Amino acid sequence: IPPINKQDLILFAKKTALSHGISADVPYIAALGFCRDARKMKHFLNMYKLKMALAHSRAGSKYLSDFLVKDIEKQLAKIVVLEYQYPEFYKTIASYPDALELFTRVARGASFPSEKAFLLGDVNQKISSIDVLWRAYSGLKEFLSVTYTIPLENFDVLARLKTSKQEADLGEFGFRLRKAIYASNAEEITASLDSAFLQTSGELIVD
After folding, report:
1. Maximum Cα–Cα distance for the chain, whole Å?
2. Residue 153's closest CA among 50, 72, 66, 83?
3. CA–CA gap between residue 73 and residue 26 (Å, rounded)
4. Do 76 and 147 touch, CB atoms closer than 8 A?
5. CA 5 to mean position of chain CA atoms
6. What pTM value is reported for the model?
7. Nearest CA-CA partner of 92 in 101, 84, 100
8. For the segment 17-74, what is each residue's pLDDT rounded down to a tens digit?
9. What is the DSSP string of 102-158?
């Protein structure tokens, strides 16, 4: 299968933007983040539109600081790609916001500083080097490299665009469960499921 070239992505983005009433920049960023089939693009757009609706609803409050909603489209699209496609990596950069700039510089050729090795372990304890990180999270290096012109200046605010505490709790549950499954930790898997069951009052959540 031949690689998708830039012109293909632009046409795909324009078509998607037209059908969903959004800026073409948004699906273009999603496509750069490998959301290129209908299912992945649908999930991306659902997350993006939900977070953008929240941003609009809170635009008049101090929650969104002093910046304008119209100025955050690209930043929000980049955040949604990272959160959706690379949740473990996203959790690390949410905990260490300066880490994103570091990983972006490294993706573009800079050396990874040895004193920052703890960030690799924070992403996943099995990540022993930057090369292992890039191999483990296919496409992440390329995505960070090509979107370096979209700095997440408002990351701390945009990362908190959650509909409720329950949504935030479920995100934490998903991360905890993935790590337990990856480590084949049966006790932690059971504990995660029990915790989610209690938090949702016994409601079953399905995709």
Report:
1. 49
2. 72
3. 7
4. no
5. 23
6. 0.70
7. 100
8. 777 778 888 888 888 888 777 778 888 888 888 888 887 777 666 555 555 666 788 9
9. HHHHHHTTPPPPGGGHHHHHHH-TT--SHHHHHHHSTTHHHHHHHTTTS--TTHHHH
